[in-house]
Amino acid sequence: MIFSDRDEAPIALDMHPDWAAKLGAAAGNLELEIGSGHGGYALAFGARHPDRALVAVEQRRKFAADLDGKARGRKLSNLVVLMGDARILAPRIFPEGSLAAIHVHFPDPWWKRKHERRRLVDDGMSTLLLRLLRPGGLLDFRTDVERYARDAVERLEEAGFENALGAGRFAERDADEIPSTREKRYLATGQPVWRLRMTRPRESR
Ligand SMILES: C[S@@+](CC[C@H](N)C(=O)[O-])C[C@H]1O[C@@H](n2cnc3c(N)ncnc32)[C@H](O)[C@@H]1O
Question: Which pTM does this prediction carry?
Fold first, then answer.
């Protein structure tokens, strides 16, 4: 089941949707959030950036439905909520090189060593994220799990991402950065968060 926003016509997922027809000028700055959860980031983004558009993909039906309801209630025409597995949906709905930014905030950690391979940011996903971004496009990755952060930074650099801070380095929080729902808790308690702000190199094709 797919939740789209204001249109009567559902988004066709067997081809790249016409984002410009759906979102107008904001489609020129199209961003993806993977695993939006309760939607704190997506809702604040929609309200703060009317000139940009965000597609939030969440695999849990209830979370996606609730977020879609809130986006409609707040008339956020630049926020599209889709229910599904981003690993499958993203390459179907976005052409390569089309995204200005991708946000991955606090992906499930899969704590046990034997489950680590279930993590969202594996080698295949790192390559896919790089390809979906336009040259210069930003990957905004945040986690509270240091082991995940260190594994991700290595994989992402290996896949071809550029880290302006230097190899293996993490970013500080920007004062005006929008926190995700989970992150608000950590900001209140002071629990550490590892942040990556990596880009697709400008000269890449
Ligand atoms: C730990 S929660 C974090 C939610 C939110 N990003 C935040 O920071 O508050 C991780 C979310 O990612 C979703 N998720 C995990 N894998 C996913 C995938 N492959 N595609 C879409 N959503 C996914 C989960 O259902 C869950 O809602």
Answer: 0.94
